[in-house]
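Is this the right way to post structure tokens for a design question? Let me know if I should format differently. Anyway, here goes:
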């Protein structure tokens, strides 16, 4: 999609922002990046639903168990 740049900037279609109330706009490495404020980062979900494995030192020796 191409849009014209006016004196005020660029209008982003609402369908691209479904459910978004606020965005952060920044310029990085020659790109314009629009990020929804408060967007959920999946990294914060790690560990929310732990499972029992019977391993007592998993947090200490996790590399050993992951990589063998």
């Amino acid at each position: 999609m191409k849009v014209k740049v006016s004196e005020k900037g660029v209008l982003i279609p609402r369908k691209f922002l479904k459910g978004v109330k606020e965005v952060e706009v920044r310029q990085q490495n020659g790109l314009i990046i629009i990020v929804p404020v408060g967007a959920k980062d999946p990294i914060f979900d790690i560990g929310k639903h732990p499972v029992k494995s019977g391993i007592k030192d998993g947090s200490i020796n996790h590399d050993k168990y992951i990589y063998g």
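Format looks fine. Someone answered above. Worth noting: The chain is about 10% helix and 20% strand. Helices lie at 62-67.
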